[in-house]
Write a structure and sequence with these properties.
There is one protein chain. The chain folds into 2 domains: 2-9 and 255-380, Aspartate Aminotransferase, domain 1; 14-252, 3-Layer(aba) Sandwich (Aspartate Aminotransferase, domain 2). It is 39% helix and 15% strand. It has helices at residues 14-25, 36-53, 69-81, 98-105, 128-134, 157-167, 227-230, 238-253, 255-273, 303-311, 332-336, 341-345, 358-380; strands at 2-3, 63-66, 88-93, 113-118, 139-145, 172-176, 193-197, 208-212, 279-282, 293-298, 315-316, 347-351. The strands form 3 sheets. It has a 7-stranded mixed β-sheet with strand order 2-8-7-6-5-3-4, with helices on both faces.
């Protein structure tokens, strides 16, 4: 099988699976327990927290463990608005993941609330001039993603932050880093919250974390036993946490080589497929976009038909975000970037991992050349 849907989920690393298994069988103790075995587990969790904080260049105590990207995004949005009094403005972009976009829209009928959805360029970059115009003294929250999950666009987070700090100093700035963490440089970013999901970097599903800058307005998430500094109650998912930390450590040890390999494979695939007539790139140029995401439109072919045609070759690709795969209608992210009509209909997303090879890219290209030629001929009939 050649798997090119790594933005949806990834294969768990053996080291991560082993760490999770050990935590479920030998180290299964509750880290909140008062006896020594509980304290030992708590220490391992704290070591994991330190490892996971390194790629962001932040302090370990600023990480809050969650169940993954959706909870992290929801918690940042709703938690940062707790305690806000009076009129509030919430700003996000048209290309956000549903766990941000739908969460923000759910507040549009709240009293004294204004929702602003920023447009994006044809490459998926948020319109910073529109952001400048939208920022006001009553702006409570700005939320945008670091790397777009469908186009691979890398947002200039610090450029957005400079505008926010200057024009809306009371606002908190949340960044969805689910597709960015470990894939692009995330150190030195000026943000108040940053969301991460483990299963995007070869760790188990159902675990993630939220970075919370000390001092940033935040009322927390789940209420209960007071875990995570009373900001996210609930017994910690120790197997998930230790599996996530193990995956991060392996990734960090191979960071440069793995990023270079993903970019080289992406470039190889892009070069091969652009030799087909009527193929269009969606998003930024491959050399400036994130190293693992490539979106192309095959005009005259339905993307979902091509996806299923490739299954017979044991090749897995996608037509967009897995969270929207079963929703009928237009692709909101592509539409926002002006990718509509036949171009949207023929869009395929390829998302790579460090273990893909250039030989796989050639195999995928050969299959796509054959299937596109066949499907276009069939459609004309």
């Amino acid at each position: 099988m050649i798997y090119l849907d790594n933005s949806a989920t990834t294969r768990v690393l053996p080291q991560a699976a082993d760490a999770a298994y050990q935590a479920m069988t030998d180290g299964f103790f509750n880290p909140a327990a008062a006896y020594a075995l509980g304290s030992r587990t708590e220490k391992r969790v704290d070591q994991a927290r330190a490892a996971l904080s390194r790629p962001l260049g932040v302090r370990r105590e600023q990480l809050i463990f969650t169940s993954g990207g959706t909870e992290s995004n929801n918690t940042a949005i709703f938690g940062s608005l707790k305690g806000w009094r009076g009129k509030k403005r919430i700003i996000t972009t048209a290309v956000e993941h549903p766990s941000v976009y739908e969460a923000v829209l759910s507040l549009e009928n709240s009293p004294d609330t204004t929702i602003v959805i920023l447009p994006v360029s044809e490459q998926g970059y948020p319109d910073l001039q529109a952001l400048r115009a939208a920022l006001t003294e009553d702006t409570a929250l700005v939320s945008m993603m670091h790397v777009n999950n469908e186009l691979g666009t890398v947002t200039d987070v610090n450029a957005a932050a400079r505008l926010i700090r200057a024009l809306a100093p009371r606002a908190v700035f949340h960044v969805d880093g689910v597709q960015a963490y470990l894939k692009v440089d995330s150190r030195g970013l000026d943000m108040d919250f940053y969301s991460v999901s483990a299963h995007k970097f070869h760790a188990p599903k159902g675990i993630g974390f939220l970075y919370h800058r000390s001092g940033a307005r935040f009322g927390g998430g789940q209420i209960g036993g007071g875990q995570e500094g009373n900001l996210r109650s609930g017994t910690l998912n120790v197997p998930g946490i230790l599996g996530m930390a193990a995956a991060e450590q392996v990734y960090e040890q191979n960071l440069t080589a793995w990023r270079q390999n993903m970019r080289a494979c992406k470039q190889r695939l892009y070069t091969n497929l652009m030799s087909i007539p009527d193929v269009l790139l969606n998003g930024p140029s491959p050399d400036v976009a994130a190293p693992h995401i490539l979106s192309l439109s095959f005009l005259g072919v339905r993307g979902e038909v091509l996806l299923h045609a490739l299954e017979q070759f044991d090749i897995c690709v996608s037509t967009g975000s897995a969270c929207a795969a079963h929703k009928a209608g237009k692709n909101r992210i592509l539409t926002a970037a002006g990718i509509i009509g036949p171009r949207q209909e023929g869009a395929i997303r390829f998302s790579l991992c460090p273990f893909n090879t250039q030989e796989e890219m050639d195999t995928v290209s050969e299959a796509i050349v054959e299937q596109v030629k066949f499907l276009r001929r069939y459609r004309r009939r």
